[in-house]
Amino acid sequence: MPRTKGDHEARRRDVSEAVWRVLAAHGFGGLTLRAVAAELGATTGLLTHYFPAKRDLVAHALELLDERTAARPRHALGSGLSAVRTALLNVLPLTAEATVSSRIWVSSWDAALAEPALSAEYAVKYGRGRDKLRDLVAAAQELGELPPGDPARAAAGAHSFVLGLVVQALFDPGRFPPAHQTGLLDDYLAGLSARPHL
Length: 198
Known about the structure:
Layout: H1 5-26, H2 33-40, H3 44-48, H4 54-71, H5 80-89, H6 96-114, H7 116-142, H8 151-171, H9 178-194
Helix pairs in contact: 1-2, 1-4, 4-6, 5-7, 6-7, 7-8, 8-9
């Protein structure tokens, strides 16, 4: 009996779920056709139908990561300094789901740094994040909730701070539980608000 399009789509979803479970457990360093096949209970031969080469598997994993990150529940932004705070909170690993996503993101950096095309994509991706944050900072400045100055510079600093906090929380979750991460972010924002110039 021939396979239907529905069968193919269902199998592709199963494969994607297996890829995600391998990423969650082992990161990009452990992402191999063999590991995904074992997770799926299939042969590596079946997987080569979907991923002829390792780079295809990595590309699919990065697409999954983008999709899962975009679909993750997030707090509404609001306006002013509150919006800046919320945007930064949305980056932090404050829930189990966000922690898994953050672990996978951080593990993907090695793969991205080793591949010039991926490095360029990541530069664009993080640039877009800074641009969105810059617009939120500028809006908070217009409301007088942040001092005047270069909003792009302030956004770059805040973005760098929060990404560093992600790494600290992933490596030492006992010392950086969600409440402590939030407190450190609030301390950072209080310092930003108090500065005469950004």
